[in-house]
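In this section we walk through a basic example: taking a raw amino acid sequence and producing a predicted 3D structure, encoded as discrete structure tokens. The instruction is simple. Fold the sequence below.
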Amino acid sequence: MNIDKSKLKLGIWYEDEEGNVIQRDDNYLVPNAYCHVIFPLEIQEKIYKTDAEGHYGGKDLVCTFSTHLCSYSGKLAVAMVNSGDYILSEALAVLANCCERCHNVLINKYLPEDGEGYAEYSNEWRKCGTFCDFCKDEGTKMTSH
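The resulting token sequence is shown next.
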């Protein structure tokens, strides 16, 4: 098998009735076209209301949340798995739910050769204005020196 990666269709693109790719106009509008959306690193959370017996599904869907991870997150997920700290589903769930602060700490820890991110409790970490379930209880450490 010879897979030509240049033929992979990823992201968002538009096609006409015959499957020809259509370019967007300056306003990113493409009337009367088929919009294709492929985000291989998209995590979905669905919330269902259970019935009186405790079952869920179908029409009982309350809402859906989607998180699209960038391609760099794929590289980071592989590094997290290769470290032995996480299995793939855990790494993807962490990346889908972490804030900018935690994302930078993970980059610094698992991709140090890239020279990106920053260390936990560093000045950059303290200055970052985001928080999530993974770091929100670190408030006392955020203000300490």
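Looking at the output, two observations stand out. Residues 5-38 form one domain. The CA atoms of residues 63 and 79 lie 32 Å apart. In the next section we compare this with other chains.
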